[in-house]
User: What shape does this take?
Amino acid sequence: MDFFLEVLTGGLLAGVMYSLVAIGFVLIYKASGVFNFAQGAMVLFAALTFVSLWEHGIPFWGAFVMTLLSMLALAWGVERVVLRPLVNRPPITLFMATLGLSYVIEGLAQLLWGSQVHGLELGISDEPLEVGGMLVSQFDLFAAGVAGVLVLILSLLFNKTRIGITLRAVADDQLAALAVGIRLERIWMIVWAVAGFVGLVAGLLWGARLGVQFSLSLVVLKALPVLIIGGFTSVGGAIVGGLIIGASEKLAEIYLGPLIGGGIENWFPYVLALLFLLVRPSGIFGERAIERV
Amino acid sequence: MLYRESGQFNTSYRADQRWFRLWQQRWVFATWMILAFVVVPLIGNDYWLNAILIPFLVLSLAGLGLNLLTGYAGQISLGSAAFMAIGAFATYNFQLRIEGMPLLISLFLGGLTAAGAGVVFGLPSLRIKGFYLLVSTLAAQFFVTWILTQCGWFSNYNASGVITAPPLVVLGQNISSPAGRYLLTLSVAFVLFWLARNIVHGELGRRWMAVRDMDTAAAVIGIPILQTKLLAFAISSFVLGIAGALWAFAYLGTVEPHGFDLSRSFQILFIIIIGGMGSILGSFLGAAFIVLLPILLSNLSATFLAGWVDPGQLENLQKIIFGALIIFFLIKEPQGLARLLEIVRQRARVWPLRF
Amino acid sequence: MFSFKKRAALIGVLALGMVATVQAANEQYFPLQSYRVGPYAAGGTGFFGGFIDYLQYVNLKEGGVNGVKFTWSECETEYVVEKGVECYERLKKGLNGAPAAATNPLSVGIAYATLERSAADKLPLITINHGRTDSTDGSVFPYVFPLQLNPYSEVSAIINYIGQQAGGLDKIKGKKIVTLYHGSPYGKETNPILELLAKKYGFELTLLEVPHPGNEQQSQWLNIRRIKPDWVILRGWGVMNPVALKTAQKTGFPADHIIGNIWSNSEEDAAPAGAAAKGFISITTHPSGTNFPVLQDIGNTVIKAGKGNLKDSKRFGTVYYNLGVVNGILNVEAVRVAQAKFGKRPLTGEEVRWGFENIRLDDVRLKQLGAYGLVQPLKLSCSDHEGGGAVRFQQWDGKKWQVVSDWVQADRKLLRPIIEESSHQYAKEKGITPRDCAKES
Amino acid sequence: MVDNTFPHQLLHQAATQPALVALRHKYLGIWHQQSWRELSDEVGSLARALAELGLGQGDTLVLLTYPRREALLLSMAAQWLGAIAAPVDPDLDKDTLALLLSHLQSRFVFAEGQDQVGQALLHGATRVVYAEARGMTAYSHENLHAYIELVQTDTKGVHPLMAREQDVAFALYRITDEQQVQVEHFRHVELLQEGRHLVLTERLGQREEAFAARVFATSGHLRYLLSPWLTAGFTLNFPENIVTRDADRRELGPTLVVGTRETYQRLESLVKARLPIAGSYVGRFVTYALQSDGSRFQKLLAYWLIKRPLKDVIGFSHIHLPLLIGPALSQESLHFFRSLGIHIRTWDKIANWRTLSATTSNKLLAETQTDSIKRALS
Amino acid sequence: MTAHAPLLELQHISLSFKGIKAITDISFAVQQGEICALIGPNGAGKSSLLNVINGVYQPDEGVISFNSKSYSRMKAHQAAVQGIARTFQNIALFKGMSVLDNVLTGRNLKVRSNWLEQMLNSGRAPADYVSQRIKAEEVIDFLRINQWRNSIVGTLPYGLQKRVELARALASEPRLLLLDEPMAGMNNEEKAEMSAFILDTQREFGTTVVLIEHDIGVVMNLSGHVVVLDYGKKVGDGTPDEVRHNPEVIAAYLGTKH
Assistant: This one.
């Protein structure tokens, strides 16, 4: 029985890692209705920039700030070049633009920092802790803690600060926000920058887990089912969605896997998300879109 | 501008239905066909046939398949590579397990199997719309690659799950030579493009476009949404299936499920974005662009700047160029190259006047 | 109209590129389908760096082989099959008149795709340490050479090593071994052999697949924790290896009971896992490090002279780099052997093929090449395109690989019938009449 | 010599070249064609139907219609019976039209659609034929006849041809500023003579493709379009409607275009408005090309790059005779068209309008008929 | 009012969106060949009622009977098959297609050949296409939009798009035509023209028309039967004159408190 618990906690903690990436999606979707497929590439870009700077001898926090500045620049560039000309285009076009964007960022990252594999040591030893007969990885706990702090900061930002309120206004109705005089471009840049920050945090944690290299950007494929279940518009939903996906994925692999040949982690989350969708076509937390004729 | 079109008018609705109204257009099309069917196999060297023309034809066929589904019926899909994989493995098994099965029949049956799978993964499209449809097709993408590697039966228990092309024999002729494979791909592509053109200009094409533009209005005027969407998935997967089979047998010769992974689906989606959504010619132009640009880039760099840009950096540069082009097209001309060509043609038609 | 103009311009450029200068250079050409970008860039840059540096070294030190200099040109494949095929088609004709000697794609997918074309174009396809195991049988696969080690020998050598550690092959009866393999043709290739060996020696085998790209292995390693095996054989590639080591540490499995195969044995596989990799064992056909005469020579004549292909000089002497050098040694040796028979001039693919089949690398010859200890004694023939089949084992001490064993031979007698049965089935399927090797050698 | 009237010419053409296309008009998206044989049969059955309605020698059939195929056939059917066809332009403003119609008091009217039928019934029309069925249910008037009914009456033999060359074929009416009604009469013989004159001088064959947006607008149309059409036997083409005439002309590529001064002026202004703006590079190149002087190479370039495509855009690629009827075009416009290689030929004849006092119109009509009968008898 | 059964009859229809009462207990009948106008202030539930008739919304209670067959759950597809066609308040045309294609799509229920025959251009397809095309061209000619036959709908001005939408509705030869503010945003001359088209449609093809219109002048001379709605309730039903003098209607329009 405690093996089941162990798998469950391992799954939940892994789920937290997925929701880290998913939060980046939610932020951008909430504020600009853009389904940003380039979030994975941004995670790769952030991690690669940080590691390369760190290896060139710049201290940890120095590298962190410089990477953050580069994410800000990236956000400004994306808003200026991609978002502004595509302002009221159908969501499908915007989605495809972010597809193109992910190619650009991946190419840029590898052009600047080369395609070597970098180890990333955050100083957290990964010796598993003995907790009630179960092995729980220290690293994952740390990651869960970081995620919790992040969600706290974001909810504070969204609810308490002035920028937060404007962000939520833009999320609800862009036209109304414009009418009230909110400068849409600035808001979008802020949102993409915040998403860049979340991407950096996710990049560091995922980078420490996998080593910083190209396949970091594939982590976006894990985030998609999380968003489907959690809904695109709520940060809390992203966390819950991540936990559900993480746990169910691991349990399915261990209990269902051997029966049908193993290696089902790629498609199982999508099938699960699909079942959720058939029940609620816009996710647990997402608002139900009313079909206007 | 180049040719005079006055004096050619239609006296019957059948004449009005023809693809090309002007005899000059028909002549240009005929010369293209002669060039493709007769001249190229004669003068084409191995490199041109194997490495450029065959992949171009197969990718334009795949582009056509996805264009029918996303360009015309408006159902976005990231699972096109999965349907190609099903087509390839089904054709391989039909060819292998049934003695003396002619290649073309097994190609057709492979397409049908892919169409069946297309319908299955198309079912959710009735209940969910837009983004969420991505999930159903992505599920198809990952599930199919998994099932093909998992069950040995599909690859005839080959230890590493790789299928190799059987000797290609059509009507008794062995066509394994590059020119032979090229002609096989070309004729299959020609037939499918012709049929697709007829569908798109017929009632079904209009229903697809109606569902694409405004499905609530389509339902109100009596279009059976269920049947229309499933037909879109079925026909699109049929074409993709055959493209997949040609990719495995006519182009590479051997293929593994990972040859049809997500980046292949992205590639096909890029083909129709750059080529032109909702245009038969668009799939051609997009495929030509996607196949020729990397080769052009690497050749240019190999000959001119061989010294200081090493191939690795060039690959990154090319990735950036591709991404930038996608964004450029989406901003400047969402309907892609086909629309640009159309604007040039319209401008030439009223030359020297401005409109 | 529009696309016709584009096509015409392209033909012009291509023709220009092809023709260039057609002077009858006295050069032997190596087409390189290299990959320096994408998920497997680490392997590509190291291997092709080593290979090019060795060719450079032979050109600089001995002016090529008997006066025939080596030339090469690279074409980026990004480890993608159709790009590999396109590069093969473009480069197989040679460069400025220099005929191609052999192709070294270092990718299972590309090897499979160009296998038949190599036979048709009569150009040897070298898949050192990997590729189709049944291509060892030269009678059916005349133009394919899985030099030094094929996947079946690799796995059999590992089992022999586990037997050694347990004090004899009979002792491993009842032990539990898990094989964690990459969900691709390369990964699945050896599963049947493992099952055969498990039946033969009576150990309990579990096969766990890691879906590509292998970013997430928590569930596999939790399974391993439940099985509590004695040994884990890791047949990984790319990102899968460091993730395996880190997840092993996370689930409390000792790193020194994990044995990596030939494609999980480089510094780039262990270093990113940091502390979790300490004690990790892996097999290798060539030790890392530079204390071999040939490598010192390369260091002095090529690297110090600034002609090294490596962008990051710290990778000189790493496992991939040395594999590239070993591959260079074997290719050049084949050319040298072929020139002895066919004359001191640029050779065609067919002649180089004969050269490969008559490579005799005994200890004396290895000492002359300065590669004693780096390369195992090899004896290739028409029927045996592998030649070696032995490996050494090395352990990662946190910074470098330390060799911890002598050559461990695979059980080739057991494997031969399986190889032949598989190659004959391929011959029947493809309608190839196997060559009669008896009268050839 | 074949009897010198429009219906006779029609029968002559139907006999000599029955299968050739006489009429072509664009309707419902495609071009419908009618051969000479079919045309003469239809006119024949129309004549018989009109005779049954009581249309006889000397009566007037008012054609209150926009340019339409049915109007042309009805006018020939009326002439077949010796009656006069009097086309009236429905675009005239309300009261001039009312004055004209009340003046004419014609019993037989062809009214195209709902509005024209209303106006005709107001002014004493007893026999009204209509073409467009729309809105007809509102007029449940017993002597209202659909054109299709007339044509479909079963063929009980052919009505004898009553037309004589001295009969008045057409009568054009207009209202002068002082509310005076003026009329111009055209006899068969004059029209055919003018038509033959044009056919000979311009060497018009039977393979011509004539294109005209309006058929009855002016006397020039009757003289230099209808009568040459019947004498030479070429094809007369109608556009789908007034608005689509430019596109239809381009689609057709006619060899003979008939138009008034306004037609050509409208065409010229349309082209000039759409030519590239003078300042731009292209604009400069176009103006440079359209000048007549310059080297051989410049002429060649101008022809292939500008003149040839421009002629094709306005549908003049196959033009053999761009005919202008009525008052001539200004020199400057003529020069413009000549620079495009289009040499407009002007045919004009001074119209002899005779003013009728408001009361005497009917009497005069009767009188012209009587002296025509007298002349026929003498 | 001939005595035989009305073409369309609504009995006690009510509809609510999660508590908000859009329509409460409305019943009225429309005779065959009649032009009936639904008028009332904004938000009176006119559009929702139209959507109920043609099956876009399903009413909470009440029965719709059309052509003497009654439905409580009318589906959009069912309505179309029965011969109910409609236009929308903010134009629901297929922007990516040409005018001709839009009108031909209107006729999709009348197409007899299936997609296979059309693909191979064999069997019933060629003749079927010609007959569909002629019917469509007749409607295009009827509404005088043949000049824009091949232009893409998205590029046409607003007034023209309204006409194309009417053409698409007419193409399906409906028995009942529902028009949702056909003349919204038009100038007087365009309004006159559109009224003429509606009158002709009713006279020419005998189609029963139910339209929503704000311009009382147009309503009065166009329709023989007027139904007035206010806050989802029916406050007036009868000939234009009866309705004009009905106190409740005046109150609704002049906005005296209830």
Residues 1-83+176-195+207-258 of chain E form a domain with the Rossmann fold fold (CATH 3.40.50.300). The beta strands of chain E are 8-17, 20-30, 35-39, 61-66, 69-71, 84-86, 176-180, 208-212, 225-230, 233-238.
